[in-house]
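Input.
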Amino acid sequence: MQRTDFRFVDRLRVRWAEIDAQQIVFNAHYLMYFDTAIAGYWRALAMPYTQTMVDLGGDLFVREATLEYHAPARYDDLLDIGLRCARVGTSSVLFRGAAFRQNQLLVTCELVYVFADPQAQTSKTVPESLRAALQGYEVGEAMVQTRVGPWDELGAHARAVRTAVFIDEQKIPAEMEWDDADAQAVHAVAYNRFGLALATGRLLREAPGVARIGRMASIAAVRGTGVGRALLEALMNAAKARGDTEVLLNAQTSAQAFYSRAGFAAAGPVFDEVGIAHVAMSRSL
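Output.
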């Protein structure tokens, strides 16, 4: 196996607690590495695992796990854990994986899961929607679709995401979240292949030629996966298409690095908004 065999690769660093008396990674920890990577694989598919399985009426149970050791990893090594869905059967899913230190193959793995009823724990047919998502990911298909439109078209899904993030998670009072600007704004919502709303944001006109992006929110399960960046790009493209040449936004300081990577620069000191530290940022289009 080679790193290029895998669309999905998870990166980790070997911790002191994971080495044994031989000063190499204890063999059982590799199974934990692959299991951790499986969680990352679901994030790459933009499929929050628990909610997805509830919606599908089943769950995935490990039937078989096989590891083959080729070379040891040591403390502080930086490892890349590659995973791919190799086969989807009637009721089972086979994943193959490999652990690499740079391009050196250390461990290979096979994991067999069975899709089953979580109460009776009896096998069920893998749903066609899950089969299509797994197979589609492995051939390079996009896992997220972003739609841009008015509030009356996207408002229900935008509201669900903003409620989960701003009101439930960040404890912003509901009366401070909703305003009349939603009706005039252009909204963007990112969806996974099952139609679940993952992220949202809105675009307003600040002044002639100047746009303002706000209410950017992503559900916790997809943060750091590129969904937020795709949504931001969709909003900036909408601003550019209508002739805007500059975009402004107020970023929570915890997200400042995210916007900086997208080309935004701080345009003032840190200030408080709804009890959360923010910084004004801008970029040209």
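The two ends are 43 Å apart (CA to CA).
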